[in-house]
Amino acid sequence: MIKSNIKTVFDCDRDKLWDTITDNHNYAWRTDLSKIEIIDETHFVEYTSDNYPTSFTITKKEKLDIYEFEIKNTNLKGKWIGRFRELENGTIELDFTEQIETTNWIMKLLAKPYLKKMQKRYIKDLKKELNRK
């Protein structure tokens, strides 16, 4: 299993942070996506800018605590865990971990650097969106 983690501290309203991350209807701030198709309350499909689909199943969603889902596409399967922790100074630490298994050996070689790159892009987009709001 390939694992990638990123931690970032945000100095913003907790609810705004949670709502921005968990609202799949408002995804325009994500530079890596062309669209999100919402199936129901626990299932959605993200499409990359190249229209490559990845299916998600939300397995845990506890406001301002944890957001967790399973991930699956033709190249990989795994899970994503996002933890929210308020620090003593009032800031919020996000701790995102993605764990995947790949279906081909080439992906095994490229997966960890790719995950790191995508996590950094997500955080950059998120910061930009929070500063905009």
What does this structure look like?
The chain is an alpha+beta fold and 133 residues long. It has a single domain, classed as Alpha-D-Glucose-1,6-Bisphosphate, Chain A, domain 4 (2-Layer Sandwich), CATH 3.30.530. The protein is built from two helices and seven strands; from the N terminus they run E-H-E-E-E-E-E-E-H. The chain has a seven-stranded antiparallel β-sheet, with helices on one face. Strand 3 and strand 4 form a beta hairpin. The longest helix has 28 residues. The protein starts with a strand and ends with a helix.
Question: What structural keywords apply?
Answer:
globular; 133 residues; alpha+beta
The number of distinct β-strands equals: 7
The CATH topology is given as Alpha-D-Glucose-1,6-Bisphosphate, Chain A, domain 4
- SS class: alpha+beta
Q: How far apart lie the N and C ends?
A: 37 Å
Instruction: Indicate the CATH architecture.
Output: 2-Layer Sandwich
CATH C-level class is Alpha Beta
CATH homologous superfamily identity: START domain
Helix content: 25-40%
How do the strands line up in the largest sheet?
Answer: 1-7-6-5-4-3-2
Poorly predicted spans = none
